[in-house]
Amino acid sequence: MIYLCNTGIPVFDGQNLAHTMPDDDKRKFKRVLLKLSGEALREVGSHDNISPPIVENIAHQIKAAHQNGLEIALVVGGGNFWRGVTASSRGMERATADYMGMLATVMNSLAVQSMLEALDVPTRVQSAIKMDGVAEPFIRRRAMRHLELGRVVIFAAGTGNPFFSTDTTAALRASEIAADVVLKATKVDGIYDSDPKKNPNAVRFDRLTFQEALVRQLKVMDATAFSLCQENNMPIVVFSMNEPDTIRQALIGEPIGTMVTA
Ligand SMILES: Nc1ncnc2c1ncn2[C@@H]1O[C@H](COP(=O)(O)OP(=O)(O)O)[C@@H](O)[C@H]1O
Ligand SMILES: O=c1ccn([C@@H]2O[C@H](COP(=O)(O)OP(=O)(O)O)[C@@H](O)[C@H]2O)c(=O)[nH]1
Fold first, then answer.
1. Distance CA 73, CA 88 (A)
2. For ATP, which residues are the binding ones (predicted)?
3. C-alpha distances out from residue 142 to 77, 88, 146, 239, 262, Å
4. How far apart are CA 240 and CA 125, in angstroms?
5. Which residue in 166, 101, 157 sits closest to 131, CA to CA?
6. Which residues fall within 8 angstroms of residue 145, CB to CB, at 6 or more apart?
């Protein structure tokens, strides 16, 4: 094993890591927080921000896992419409741009809710920004009650605060509702030692510690989200939602993607 200079923090390469961490063949979840990237709702090459067939496919996968009694909460990003940081780099005031991003997540949340309900899955959307007539306000204890009653709860409008991301929202809400895990469905099939979109030789990890993810400054999730999960001992699984059935597989605990633990 290699250690980072004078820190005592172990540094693994991808292969070593897979062999030195405990076996994770049997992930067993009772309550999960699934984070869907906003981009994932868009069809590649299409002008539409939301593709109904893609959302329908996601809803089918969620339904399949839900039927087995799994309690499922969702956080949906807004990047298919708007990202605050991008707009701010082009001259817009950051806080306003971020509020617009949060509103984008509400549209995505309603799209996912609509598809789930079309499949007879009971749902509730709770918004971090008060929006009577569109969604319930976020009330933690009520969210937990919905989950106990078998409703899929969709947390919209991020944390309700600018300068945060929906990854951080996922970490926060997962901790609040005492979920077993954050499942981050994204464009890559796990966490690599560098960005695989930029480095074709990047090595994928099967498992990773929070400390390693933070020390290596791996950009697949923002550092605020990683450290919130670390503080609350909340495992994260990063997996690709580009394959047809991976959301269902991740939900039922199949060993896909990269798992990050203490
Ligand atoms: N070390 C890494 N491992 C995996 N992906 C990484 C890494 N560093 C950067 N990325 C990039 O992170 C992206 C996922 O993060 P992000 O775009 O914020 O996702 P999302 O929109 O799903 O929240 C991937 O598309 C990948 O290109
Ligand atoms: O608590 C939050 C969550 C989200 N956002 C804004 O909402 C946008 C959309 O969320 P995100 O980029 O996380 O979506 P994703 O990349 O997952 O689609 C962000 O860029 C931010 O501008 C925010 O300000 N506060």
1. 30
2. 35-38, 79, 83, 186, 192, 195
3. 22, 35, 6, 29, 29
4. 24
5. 157
6. none
Nearest to 147 by CA among 29, 26, 238, 260: 29
Q: Which domains does the chain have, with CATH numbers?
A: 31-261 (3.40.1160.10)
The atom of ligand 1 lying closest to the CA of 185 is 22
Q: How far apart are CA 42 and CA 55, in angstroms?
A: 9
pLDDT tens figures, 95-127: 999 999 999 999 999 999 999 999 999 999 999
User: Per-residue pLDDT averaged across 134-155, rounded?
Assistant: 98
Cross-strand pairs, 10: 3
Contact 168, 222 (CB under 8 A): yes
Residue 201 annotated as binding site: no
- The pLDDT tens digits of the residues spanning 65-100 come to 999 999 999 999 999 999 999 999 999 999 999 999
Atom of ligand 1 at shortest range from CA of 216:
1
**pLDDT band of 26, cuts 50, 70, 90:** low
Distance 256 CA to ligand 2 centre (A): 25
How far, in Å, is the centroid of ligand 2 from the Cα of 223? Answer: 14
246 is in an annotated binding site: no
Joined together, the tokens standing for residue 248 give 């269902």
